[in-house]
Structures are given as structure tokens and as C-alpha cells.
Amino acid sequence: MSPDLNALAVFMLVAEEKSFRAAADRLGVTRSAVSQTMARLEATMGIALVRRTTRSVSLTEAGERLAVSLAPAIADIRAAVESAGSLGRRPRGQLRLAVSSIAETFLAGPLLAGFAGAYPEIQLDITVTDEEFDIVAEGYDAGVRLGEVIAQDMIAVPVSGEQRQSAVCAPAYLERAGMPKHPGELVGHRCIGWRPAPRVAPYRWEFGVDGREFAVEVAPEITTNDMALMIKLAVAGAGITFGMEESFRAEVERGRLVPILEEFCPRFAGFYLYYPSRRNLAPKLRALTNHLRTARSGMRG
């Protein structure tokens, strides 16, 4: 069976958009043309790839498998075309990034503002998310996450130094509840937890001592997916909260939050920009990696 590359490209757009109409709009053709292309592809393959309803389109098991398998190849083709077409001109186009909400150094503003100013023909599309997914299958050029959770087959470029998690609370809370001497005592304190998404368990509070890591199963009285709200609640004296040291730094410097249990909070590898290994790196992504390396070099200098 000789593959119809144009039909496969249409299928990938349908898979990304979950809509015939949205895929048609991106292609500049009619919805009917997309529907007919999909019907021919399914007839050629002898299996249904999408489920159609009056309101939505979803992938069948076969469609999901095909989309996952095609995503890296489609990304390579797009990068190769962009690389070949970029000779003699500045990097341009949309650069889609999926960034962890706690990547403070990357999201602070100056780093991205400097990049946008240096490459005005690149349009940054940044999704701040803590959900775990395949960035290639979802159509992103790269992501930013903690190094410890990035797959080994990805290329990773550092965007921060070593990180540290910290337990903090307001001085008023300490006066009222007392200072815990060991993480195990946190189970007797009021705690404010964080979760990355609805219906996901709260983030574990992990500590370390003498090279040994351990987690404490706190039962948060308040749980949220909003780091800013978590910090406001802690400042207001609602309890002890736990997260990245950088997230709390401003309030600690103001004296509105106090770090506790610091001897149980070791440092670890920080945040990285990551993307799949491929021979043809898109110029827009290469521009970002070069910008990050230059910025990091300047910070060390």
C-alpha cells in the first residue's frame, strides 16, 4: 500500500484540531474536502481512523496509534522544509512551547522578552501547564520542565541553575503553631497543598537527609493548582506550604514568609528546555537554544 502523504498530512491536522472545520480553515479548503480526503484514507487503509459526531471528531484506537507514530516524522519534515527555506533569512514562524508553571527563571519575563526582541519574526505561543503529555504528538516545538522528569531520549538545554524545594509559612503561623523540627511533624500541622490538574493527587512533599530521600504524606486542609493562591494563603497564615524556593523568594525577602526545615531540603537539577532529537532542527528553535545558552553564560559571568 503506497501511502498518500497529502492525506496523512490532512489526518494529522484533524488529529491536532479534533475538528474537520478547524483543519479545513488551516488548510484553506472546504470542510467537505477534508471529509472526503479522510474517507479516502480510511478506505485505503481499511480501518476507521476517526469517530464523527455532529459536534466533534475523536480518534479511534487505530487513529491514535497512527497519530503517535506519524508525529515525529511530520515534525522532522516541517523542520527540514523550514531549515531549507530559511537559508539567507532570519528565523521566523510560530514557536510553540509547553512550560511548567513553576519554571520561574524562564517565565519571569526578561528571558522571553529578550528573545522576542532579538527575533521579531518569531511568534511565541506559550502554554503554561503542569500536565504530562507528549509534546511532539500535541504539536509543540519544545517544552520546559524539571530535568528529572524529562525522557532520556530528549535533547535538554539548561534554563536555570540547581533548584531547591522549600517549606514555608507566615511568622504568625509559627507563633501560633510552633516550629516543626522534622518533616515527620508536618502531619500535625495545617498544610496547603498543590496539584497540577483536577482529579490529580496533591504533589508529594519530598525531603532528604544524608543523601537519602523520603516523602511525608501530609493531608492538606487546602489544595489548589494555583501557585499564586497557595502563596497568598500561606502569607495570610493559613498554614505551611511547600514548593520551589524561587516561587517563595519575593515573600521571604519581604519577611512575610519564613523558610523552615531547611536542612532537609537538598538541591537538585533545575529546569531544561527539551525537544526531540532530530537531524534538522528548525531555525526558530535553534535561535531559542542559542539565546538560552548566551543568557546562561551571561548569568554565570
From TrEMBL:
Signal peptide: none annotated. InterPro entries: LysR-type_TF_proteobact-type, LysR_HTH_N, LysR_subst-bd, WH-like_DNA-bd_sf, WH_DNA-bd_sf. The keyword Electron transport does not apply. Gene3D superfamilies: 3.40.190.290, Winged helix-like DNA-binding domain superfamily/Winged helix DNA-binding domain (1.10.10.10). Keywords: DNA-binding, Transcription, Transcription regulation. It comes from the Bacteria. Pfam families: HTH_1 (PF00126), LysR_substrate (PF03466). Residues 3-60 form the HTH lysR-type domain. The keyword Transcription applies. Belongs to the LysR transcriptional regulatory family. This is LysR family transcriptional regulator.
